[in-house]
Amino acid sequence: MSGEGLALIGALGLERLAARGWRPQLVGGLTLGADPVAYAIAAAARAQGATLDAFSVRKQAKDHGTGRRIEGCFHPGAQVVVVEDVITTGRSALDALAAVESEGGHALGVLAVADREEGGRAALQQAGYELEVLVTARELGLE
Questions:
Q1: How do residues 29-87 score in pLDDT, each as one tens digit?
Q2: CA-to-CA distance for 53 and 16, rounded, in angstroms?
Q3: How far apart are CA 53 and CA 39, in angstroms?
Q4: Which of 6, 37, 77, 90 could form a disulfide with 123 if both were Cys (CB 3.0 to 4.6 A apart)?
Q5: Max alpha carbon distance in the chain (Å)?
Q6: Domain range annotation of the chain
Q7: Is 84 helix (H, G, I), strand (E, B) or coil?
């Protein structure tokens, strides 16, 4: 959550979205891990003159306030990339994907900062989603 980290993740994330050919209207995922990633990418897009907004998915809908599970700039019909800080089993990303799709969003795929390479990619692919990552555990020497 450092300013330097946000600038780096935002720029790299935006670059990977473009390389993948994903043109989402929104980025977001399960709070709290996905929040700084989504906000960094949205800010990087804005700095380049592009519109890309962010949203957060709560673990559960609140029973007060708006009562929504998805907060932020989300709207039904939006093209979405779910983001994560770290992919391990893929469970958090799958939970966010289910919330997005149940609210009418269209998921293009998942972008994660790091993949621990502990089955998350396979779980997402088995569910029909592609995963793009900035770095893997192996690339970091954490095998």
A1: 999 999 999 999 999 999 999 999 999 999 987 777 667 899 999 999 999 999 999 99
A2: 16
A3: 8
A4: 90
A5: 45
A6: 3-136
A7: strand
pTM beyond cutoff 0.90: yes
Nearest CA among 109, 103, 105 for reference residue 128: 109
Question: Which residue has tokens 């979205």?
Answer: 17
The answer to whether 41 and 27 have CB atoms below 8 angstroms apart is yes
The three-point CA angle 42-72-34 to 5° equals 60
103 residue type, one letter: E
Alpha helices in the chain (DSSP H): 3-20, 34-47, 91-102, 120-126
For residue 141 the two structure tokens come to 């020497």
For residues 140 and 31, give the distance between their C-alpha atoms in angstroms, rounded to a whole number. Answer: 25
Distance of alpha carbon 142 from alpha carbon 17, whole angstroms: 25
Q: How far apart are CA 27 and CA 81, in angstroms?
A: 5
Report the candidate in 116, 36, 49, 102 with the shortest Cα–Cα distance to residue 74. 102
How many CB atoms are closer than 10 A to CB 19? 9
Paired tokens of 34: 């996905």
Contact between 106 and 51 (Cβ < 8 Å): no
